[in-house]
Amino acid sequence: MASGLPFDPTQRSEEAEKLVMRGEKRLYYKFRAAPYYGGIATADAVGCSFLCAYCWNYGRNENPGRFGKLYSPEQVANNLLEISRRRNFHLFRITGSEPILGETSFEHLTKVIGIVLQEGPRADFILETNGLMLGYRKDLAERLLIRNLLVRIAVKGVDPASFEKITGARSEFFIYPLLAINHLESRGVRAWPALMDDLFSEAEINELKKTLRENGIQAELELECLEPYPFVQENMRHHGVLISCP
Ligand code: SF4
Hints:
- The longest helix is centred in the middle third of the chain and has 17 residues, at 103-119.
- The model has no long low-confidence stretch (mean pLDDT 94).
- This protein has helices at residues 9-20, 58-62, 73-87, 103-119, 132-136, 138-142, 160-167, 175-186, 202-214, 230-239; strands at 21-22, 25-34, 40-45, 69-71, 91-95, 124-129, 149-154, 190-196, 222-224.
- Strands 1, 2, 3, 4, 5, 6, 7, 8 and 9 form a 9-stranded mixed sheet that branches.
- The protein is α/β, with parallel strands linked by helices.
- A hairpin with a 2-residue loop joins β1 and β2.
- Residues 48, 50-52, 55, 57, 61, 97-98, 130 line the site of iron/sulfur cluster (SF4).
- Iron/sulfur cluster is lined by residues 48, 50-52, 55, 57, 61, 97-98, 130.
């Protein structure tokens, strides 16, 4: 995969999709019950359009073709449903990667969501995404009007410069996650932006909130905390990304 920084994330998406998809199967390396959101059935996949300095799955996403096993949408959905029945969970997600790299991974994802939501009538699927492809391709966002689907979009930076430093993707792509929220909100899909707040000052976060409003985004910004694993801190030092909050 292209390794120079900064890179074109749409090209990286395309390359990653070729490495992690075979037909409608995608590479996953784990299925688990996770404590987040009060308990959620979780599938860990590989392959991303970004290479974030704080990614807890950095090593796998650097070379995604080398990790995991191929699973069909039916197999992924069945594994998630089995976890949810065992743990009495009603929430589902795919993490560790970007679920939407292009058309093939999008179709894989929507099949997983469709089966899970059909089998689990009280279920909600939380789509955790970096928003790049949903902003870049409005047609994909328009196909996500699915009952009980919630879309959480990690916006990564407070401006183009911080976006580039954190994700490795060129600064002009900062706008696409914001466009994704626009596309989804205009279709009536429940979507909201999220930001790792440990990396930014209050003034910078307020500036981002202003940018969101100026771009017509209604949803509130969710602030999340960094998981400071030692290898995450090492990668951040390597990328020159500093934690700014005490
Ligand atoms: S968008 Fe998420 S999965 Fe992709 S590199 Fe960044 S933190 Fe990792």
